[in-house]
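Hey, can you fold this one?
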Amino acid sequence: MVSELLNKYIWLVQTVLNAGERGLDLGEVQSRWESRWGEYYSRRSFCNHREAIAEVFGIEIECNRSTNRYFIRYGEDVSDTRADAAWLINTFTVNSLLTLGQERLSGRVSVQNIPSGQRWLTVIMEAMTEDRILELEYRKYQSHESETLHVSPYAVKEFERRWYLAGWCREREGLRVYGLDRIVGLKVSAEGFRMPARFDVDELFSKSYGIYLPGDRPAEKIVFRATERESAFLEDLPLHHSQKRMGTELATEEYPVVFGMEAVPNVDMVMDFCRLGSRVEVLEPEWLRTEIAAEIEKALKLYK
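Sure. Predicted structure:
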């Protein structure tokens, strides 16, 4: 199963990371593997796993030729700054720990469930690994009927407790994003596809806010200010990867911290600013500020 293989990849990354700069020699890797998984670990399997980890996570397990020890360069960067890979690594690691210590940790660990990831995610990742086209039975929220679509699975992306598939749709003749929780049927076809050269899912969504593809719309500079308390939360968990602190020219006593970010505004951005309420004030662009105010007014009328 792909999920089991991914667990093994994650375990191998964590094992090498935990060894630090000194790393591990092949015998130590084999010994720890056999202790953890209860099976012989050949040199060929280790080499294949190293290649797969580099391809899937962008993490290189290197070999110091003078000592024949394996290590991951800049381990802290892997854990801290490669947010997407780190999130996936941490998720699988936690899941493994929960499985191993289910009885001992029962009632002490609470993890939010992501329903869409349970049924289809491993199947889609298997198709991605083999570059196979998916046949989806897909039903939109606003529709009562499903449609059959043929999608080349380029990437998967998690956003706000939902998994999404990004890929080329034959029927739409373009790149589309599909929520896994709207898939009602899924087959991996025997038909293959060719991945676009230098495709990168982070680059694809670099100007997006959330899961919407930006299309031809240019990114806009969004300027907003926050209360001192809220600014601490926003610095720990930015609204967008481009978010940065700005100068104090637009700051006030009540809103002392000013942020800027560059993204394509959409309904998710409007709703996120509405959710933040009076703790944040959007300053620019003016049209976005007006749209947020209109949405807040509509909500206010419901409570009068």
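The radius of gyration is 23 Å. Let me know if you want another pass with a different chain boundary.
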